[in-house]
Amino acid sequence: MELYLDSADIVEIEEAFKLGFLTGLTTTPTFMHRGGVKDVDSLIVKLSKIVPVLQIEALGDTAEEVLAEAKRQLDLGLDPKKTVFKIPVSLEGVRACNMLRREGLLVNVHLVYTLQQAYMAMQAGASYVCPLVGRLQDQGHDALSLVEQCVFAVDHYGYDTKVMFSSVRTAEHVRNALNLGVHTITAPWKIMKALTENNFTTVGTEQFVEHTRLMTVKVKNVVDTVNPTVTDDTPLVDAIVKMTEFGFGAVTVVKKDGTLVGVFTDGDLRRKIQQEGRDVLKKNLKDFEYGKPVSIEGDALLNDANALFKKFNVDTLLVTDNGKPVGMLDIQDMRANASK
């Protein structure tokens, strides 16, 4: 199924065609008017140099006027093999369609609201016939049934016409078009951008990124090099202030000679207050007992750190370089870095 962009916004047109696989562009005088276009011919020429196929309006009260307008636009320098002239369906419109097709030019008969209109366009040799699904549904009509009938007519009678699904309002319309077997669809950029989105895809991608980083990124590449360290004779209150200043949930406690004593965490603080009350705040860090801190070498992978977090049920790991404390890895920081 061909995929056209429906727009006159030069910024989004340039962005959309970076995809590299769009069939072409459909545009309308209404789009141009809304965009404040003042020189239609200049815009048409510019667009023709950006997109593979350009579908533009050719208007006139009679078939002869439509034919003259199409030729005038071609004289601007448009490639007749890459230009499709859009003509509103009418008796003069289908006559103009037939005249243009006899000269080898491409035609899209659009603003189609009934199967009878589509039939006349097909009989006239239209390259495209274009039912407006969104507009029909706005009026309470069964637009999808009309599209289905148009596709059937092309296939059953062997018309050399492509049914274009247009007036696309939702991503669901694109699914409808695919299910109905239309030959081409033209959609706004905002709808087109949403076609690859799905929450399950997003979640799965995030998991793949996280797991890849866990297996390839080293602890030292994500750990904060700032390591809040205090000596064991530091008052507990001062240690709390230091944790707050550095935004860490723990401090490394060392002796005056730099020998590691242990790690004091905000979890330890909560437990001490629960056990001893507010009087614990009068103590120094050397008044507490420390178990051996859970540590990890900076050259280890985040995957190894993740395993330690789970095994020891801790929130912070002491990061070392050849056994010397160089920083701390918080479980939330690790998760944040793994998902980048």
From TrEMBL:
GO terms for biological process: carbohydrate metabolic process. The keyword Zinc-finger does not apply. InterPro entries: Aldolase_TIM, CBS_dom, CBS_dom_sf, TAL/FSA. Gene3D superfamilies: Aldolase class I (3.20.20.70), CBS-domain (3.10.580.10). Residues 223-280 form the CBS domain. Keywords: CBS domain, Schiff base. Pfam families: CBS, TAL_FSA. This is Fructose-6-phosphate aldolase, TalC/MipB family. It comes from Chryseolinea serpens.
